């Protein structure tokens, strides 16, 4: 299976999560392209079997660049393809389900009739610049292993 992992980042934390997901999926036998969101000029569903999309949570939602990227995901081409969504955010934010970038990404992709493989992954960072909290990369890798298992079904 071949997938695309797309992320936005200002301070590198969301990139680190995207890279950990990509690396783990590759270890599980998947072919994965990993892209900074602003580097994706054209997105063709023909090239990929699944999509993983992540954003830093900003003001309770996804970044503008990720919102723009979602406009490139054409529902008629991507319908029924599996997806997963993740975000990075600060610990107090976890109490607010509706303030998660990942939940909002997932809602848009479900509306476009893609198929959600797993509940979203919300990864904790300290303040605005990070770093990621201890254990978050390990938790991310465990999530990606589970995702690989779902994708192979
Ligand atoms: C302008 C701005 C708004 C933010 N708003 C939120 C927020 O609403 N909730 C939250 O948990 N974190 C918020 N944060 C913290 C970001 O989630 C954090 O900077 C980000 O996860 C770091 O990821 P990055 O290193 O990939 O940029 C905000 C950060 C910035 C810069």
What would your notes on this structure say?
The chain is an alpha/beta fold and 153 residues long. The protein has one domain: Rossmann fold. Strands 1, 2, 3, 4, 5 and 6 form a six-stranded parallel β-sheet that branches. β4, α4 and β5 form a beta-alpha-beta unit. The site of flavin mononucleotide has 19 residues, from α1 and β4.
Topology:
Layout (H helix, E strand, L loop, with lengths): L1 E6 L5 H15 L3 E6 L13 E7 L7 H7 L4 H4 L3 E8 L11 H11 L3 E2 L4 E4 L11 H17 L1
This protein binds flavin mononucleotide.
List the keywords.
alpha/beta, Rossmann fold, 35% helix, globular, binds flavin mononucleotide
CATH architecture: 3-Layer(aba) Sandwich
Number of domains: 1
Number of helices: 5
What bound compounds does this protein have? flavin mononucleotide
Gap between N and C termini: 11 Å
Strand count: 6
The average pLDDT is: 97
Order of helices and strands: EHEEHHEHEEH
The CATH class, by name, is: Alpha Beta
Helix content: 25-40%
Q: Find the CATH superfamily.
A: Flavodoxin domain
Q: How does the helix and strand content classify structurally?
A: alpha/beta
Radius of gyration: 14 Å
> What is the molecular shape?
globular
In percent, how much strand structure appears in the residues? 15-25%
Could you describe the largest sheet, including whether it forms a barrel? 6 strands, parallel
Tell me the CATH topology: Rossmann fold
Unreliable stretches (pLDDT < 50, length at least 5) are none
